[in-house]
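Write out the 3D structure for:
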Amino acid sequence: MKNPFDIEMLRNELRRLSVIIDEQNIHASFPPNDCPFVDKACECIEHGGDADHIALASLLHHVAENLSS
């Protein structure tokens, strides 16, 4: 079982990053994606469902790699 304190820290950090992205007007330009894990995470966001750790990590990595100012 995961430590809930660690999850709450992660949630807060992601929220903090979203505020920075908004304040700094950072955007992303995404090339076509061929990663099934990113697709799975996006499908879960759009339609509901459970995204596993691989899908979540892949989605966050994909976003990070395509940020621009």
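Residues 4-68 form one domain.
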